[in-house]
Amino acid sequence: MSRAAKLAELRALRASGKTRLSTYEVEEEEQLYDEVDEEGYKKLVRGRLEEDDFIVDDNGEGYVDDGREEWDGHQNGYRYASESEDDARPSKGKAAKRKREEDKEQRDKQNRKINSFFSAKNAAAAPKPVATAEENDFMEDLLGEINTNVPRAAPRMRPVKTESRRKTRVLSPPVSENRAHAAKKQAADSDNFMPETPPAENTYDDDPLPTLGDDDDIPMSDPVPQSSPVAKAVERKSQPMVKIEEENDDDGMEVEQVVGHSGVASASVNISGKRPVPRIKKAEYPTPASSSPVGPTVAPAVDASSWNNVTSKLNVVSSPAPNINNNAGMGKLNPESAVENDGSLHMFWIDYTEINGSLCLFGKVKDRTTGKYVSCFVKVDNILRKLYFLPREYRVRRGHQTDEEVEMGDVSDEIDDIMSKHRVTMHKIKPSSRKYAFELPNIPREADYIKLLYGYDKMPLSADIQGETFSHVFGTNTSLFEQFVLWKNIMGPCWLKIEDANFNAVTNASWCKLELAVTKPNSITVLPNTENIDAPPLTLMSISLRTTFNAKDNKQEILMASAMVYDNFSLTDPTPAEQLPCKSFTIMRPHGEAYPTGFKMETEKQKSTIMLRKTEQDLLSYFMAMFQRHDPDVLIGHRLDDIDFSVLLNRMREKKTPGWHRIGRLRRSEWPKNMGKGGGSFFAERQLASGRLLCDLANDLGKSLMTKCQSWSLEEMCQLVLDKRRDELDNEAALKTWATTKEGLMNYVKHCQADAFFIAAISIKVQMLSLSKVLTNLAGNSWARTLSGTRAERNEYILLHEFYKNKYICPDKQWGKGKAKVEDVAGEGEEGVDAKKKDKFKGGLVFEPEKGLYDKFILVMDFNSLYPSIIQEFNICFTTVERSDLTEDDDKVPEVPGEEQEKGILPRLIANLVHRRREVKKLMKSPTATPDQITTWDIKQLALKLTANSMYGCLGYSKSRFYARPLAMLTTYKGREILRRTKDMAEEKMLRVIYGDTDSVMINTNVDNIQEALKLGEDFKKQVNGSYKLLEIDIDNVFRRILLHAKKKYAAINMIRVEDKYIEKLEVKGLDMRRREYCALSKNTSEELLRFLLSGEDPETVVEKIHEHLRTLAENMRSFTIPTWKYTIYTQLGKHPKDYPNGNSMPSVQVANRLIAKGKHVKAKDVMSFIITGDSSGSAENAAKNAYPVDEVLKADSGLKPDIDYYLHKQILPPVERLCAPISGTNITMLAACLGLDTTKYRVTTVSGSNTQDIEIQPLESQIPDSVRFQECVPLFLRCRSCHTAFPFNGISSVHTTTVTHDGLQCPNASCRAILSNLSVVAQLESAIRQTISSYYTGTVVCNDPACASRTRQISVYGHRCLGPKGLAKDCLGRMSYTYSDKDVWNQLLYFASLFDVERAGKEPDGINGVKVEGASEKREKLKILAEVNRERFNTLKGVVDRWLEKNGRQWVQMDSLFAFALK
């Protein structure tokens, strides 16, 4: 339309009174959007993603276009270039300011956290109604039906807060900005039409959770295509752990949330273009209707009868669930119910801890209203340090001594100045006379000291502090507990009388039922006659954990915790664990999504309480609640110290479990700072258990009580201690297979419960708690430290108490003493491992044994407690032996104290222990003694014996504060002197001593009648005992026959007296069958052979039986009829598996690595059990690779079988050969033939040296075929000068040689076929020989210890001794040997000579390994003819090698050195 026409139209409208707008018609816009279905949209998005439109040089930020449309303009977190430029300009004016304030208010609103909705500023919420158990059950059933039948709307994803998430960026402007006013065409008559759809952020206005922030993601309906950049980014970086703000009850069915009117179409897509959050599916607490089975419906069968029988017979009483919401103050005991009539409190103390200068005691008190014993917490304040300052004779100024004499007042003044510098305002100073009798030089025997007392809440003084007026200070690092128990003379756990207690000073400082504070330590005394008052009954809790390995986070997570609780357990009650009433509970979570169908109903049928939780967090919370409810005094476990307790603490720490400190009895607000930091973490973990005793079956104390164990595994302990079978399970495999059904999972739970019972039963059977308590009462230390196995500390404390009573200043504890000392090295002339590390002082005397088989009666005469008796006999003590002129490294033995010397403290102490033990043993023999009394007295006499016999140990233990090398030297010197004198006295009576060791001698009576032998022994006993006042010798054993193999190695038939007759029993000491690295099959074989050897039959008959037994054994092994478990080998790790430099050849290290890969905890000193499988072919590395844990081999479907050849060579033959060495009629060759081994490989060569106990086995030179002799030789490679082809030459005697022609050697290359000139072959042969000799003269040596395997060219000045991995001549006891020996050079030269030996041509046997090769005879004849034709050429080549052989000294015998003795 032209301009004039438009003006005319406008005039006409005005004339009619209308405007143009009233007649304007809005044209319908054509469709702005492409309408596609869901599949079409997916294809469109994938097409965009396939373009892989990454931003160039994004520095790995991962900004990508994910291909989706921007449907909503309300999402935050993205800006474009134009926006950022405008925003960057400073805005001016009131409107801009108001806009900024509105934007800030909007951002604050969106960024609110959930805490704002629950803060104190908000209105107080209405009290939450408390639901009863019946209501909970009803609602659970009701919700279970709803969950099953009605799909719920998919809940909104909760905020995911993590800084490490990689964000995506939209590369194109969103539709909402480009087409702000565009709307999809809707039908006007549609009921579902709504002009403006409310934004998504208004959907949850009534939800008390914050709106999505900048970092929050929106769920996406479709999974990200695998080929997209988003998927690749996800693959590059695993999704980190997310924190779920609210419980997600998603049942797996996604229903879109309706927004506005229900008819508005809504596409469930990622409208923000951000990375979708993976759906977090929390396992729902199952109901019988909603549970679904996990894994296969049919699981492989497992025999659970062994542990189900155990759990079914337990005397289980009800164990109610805990009250999680129990207030802190609930359950506290009214002090009036525990106080005695005189106002005092009687408490049996059990454990302690030190906090901020105060000593906290934990124990048990009696509730007088109920008669029960409850836990008690006592905080003791104002315990003072006691320091003793030794005054100088003359004042020292600036390091130089003056003539000014020092008075006591001068010392006090200087101490005052020191206290002022340390800001110690309250302290006491007074003179005190004390004695000293220990190893520090220049300390007078008795002197006047200045005694300083000040609080433990102040910093301690330095241990090496010196002043102008004093030279030494003692007691600077004395611990608070040590100071208290020495001052109050508290000897271990006992009854204390507490007066003037303040029950209001401490509130909720612990989890104990009664809390009090004592400000005057004098108010605490030991209750009179406390030894005769029984200890209160204790509450025992044994725990067993099951963990699952989280490979993603490389962590062990707790899946299940079972516990057995024994209330009112008496330490003197000998009742077996299976008869004691107990409470059993198990707390578990599902392994996966949910429990198997019907599992909850199955748990309700069990006698024990099984609590089903959803998450590990819930499991840990309930477990701690059960701790509070049962309040155990003792926590028992297997490998509790190094595994279970650490795992439990670490999981609670990571999960931030509320009430985690209930693991002990002291309330704590935060975790220790040194948790998880090296060695300090162990002590921090122990401190967290303060108030409860930790009893670990597998620590040093437990191992000392179960000496028959080799691996100290739980199944071994059950077998040896309880005589019960315990099956080891593959935890991960069980959870994936048979434990996925309700029956299988219940069997899995019962296995865990059975372990908890086994742990408790073993500790009760070996009387671990009873014995440790008596040991602690004797020593005066803490019960917890005794349970950890610290024998040296017990010896220290018993001496501390004795010397403190006698007014002696005791040596201070020196932490890390002895670590900085340079290690002793072998003396001059001592060579490598042949010479042991130099001893700090000489020990016991061992006579050289007269080896052989004896068939006459042998008497073993043994001194009773030799070293304690020597200390008493010769009055050896710190206070009696003069040693001031001896240095620590002096080898001079001090003089024995004179008769006039007063009895020392150490002899008096030992005499008291021995006397008390005799009295206890008298009580045990009383006819009126009850079984309970006999059990109690037996524990006490054993504790007295262990304590008395270990007193010598503190003298020679360099890390003990009572270490006194001169006293230890004197004690062992007198022991050696007594043993020599005993031997002389026996020989004077015409008795032959065949062996002697430290405190015993073996006497050959040369009689066949036991009565005559005993008479000789009694006469000799009287003669020896008459020579001493306290030393006593007695007949320890009577051997009918003995095989004396070497020092400390023998086997004998011991005659045991039972009532009026003697029975025979095999006794073995030190032989291979007593070492854990030999399997049960090897030990059984050795035991059977020993019975043959010690049977007393003719030697010919014995040898024939041995041979026949070995033949049968080899046949059974090769037919695999022997149980597989008998092939188990046990090896203890000397260090962590990763610290072994040559672990590839060590089976134990390979097995440890397999266990670590499974998530198991492995550390130094752990014992690995494994079986060598497959075929190692004599290779150590192959054998190590084929070593598998026992449980893997024993699986029915493992397909693994023992390596029979390995076991015959390494496990059977060596110990059998050593056992049979003393008898005639057999040898190594015959024994190998009986086992079906190659007899040509063995001969016996006795290695010289009296201290060598092993036998080297190697083949005879004359019997070795060339195929074996030249097996390790390097082939000769020749090179053709024409085509440069290199090929191995196998020699003219080999049927495989095809390069020999009538004209010489020919190139094997078909395209060349050139004849090699003889001169060229000579040059190449000469070069190969020179390379061989060069390798020999390189002199590379390697250590024979697989753990070291050090390779070097350095030669140790100690001969064959290894220099160690660092070259410092330490950390290794291996022998160095040449990698290329003179024998290797000799064999290599012989090999080269054989290649061109015409006389050998045609003499090679037909075939290989006895198998004939077709056409071999014809080839052999042809080679023989060709060799003759080329004799001159080949003789020339052989002559080259012969000239080098003539120079080799290995072919000559040095007659002058061989017969040097005849020339003297």
**How much beta, percentage-wise?**
15-25%
Global shape: globular
Structural class designation? alpha+beta
The number of helical segments is: 40
Give the N-terminus to C-terminus distance in angstroms. Answer: 143 Å
Topology:
Layout: H1 3-15, H2 38-50, H3 81-88, H4 94-110, H5 133-149, H6 175-178, H7 229-236, H8 305-312, E1 316-317, E2 345-355, E3 358-366, E4 373-380, E5 384-391, E6 394-397, E7 400-405, H9 408-421, E8 427-435, E9 446-455, E10 470-474, H10 480-488, E11 495-498, E12 514-518, E13 524-526, E14 538-550, E15 555-569, E16 582-588, H11 599-603, E17 609-612, H12 616-630, E18 634-637, H13 640-655, H14 680-688, E19 693-696, H15 700-705, H16 714-722, H17 731-736, H18 742-765, H19 768-779, H20 783-787, H21 791-805, E20 852-854, E21 858-863, H22 866-873, H23 905-924, H24 931-949, H25 953-956, H26 965-988, E22 992-997, E23 1000-1004, H27 1010-1025, E24 1033-1046, E25 1049-1058, E26 1061-1069, H28 1080-1093, H29 1099-1118, E27 1129-1132, H30 1147-1157, E28 1167-1172, H31 1180-1185, E29 1187-1189, H32 1190-1193, H33 1204-1220, H34 1228-1234, E30 1244-1245, E31 1256-1257, H35 1266-1269, E32 1276-1279, E33 1286-1289, E34 1300-1301, E35 1304-1305, H36 1318-1338, E36 1341-1343, E37 1351-1352, E38 1376-1378, H37 1382-1395, H38 1416-1429, H39 1431-1447, H40 1455-1458
Parallel strand pairs: 1-16, 4-12, 14-18, 16-17, 18-19
Antiparallel strand pairs: 2-3, 2-11, 3-4, 5-9, 5-10, 6-7, 8-9, 11-13, 14-15, 15-16, 20-24, 21-23, 21-24, 22-23, 24-25, 25-26, 27-28, 28-29, 30-31, 32-33, 34-35, 36-37, 36-38
Helix pairs in contact: 8-18, 16-18, 19-21, 19-24, 22-23, 22-26, 23-24, 28-29, 28-33, 36-37, 36-39, 37-39
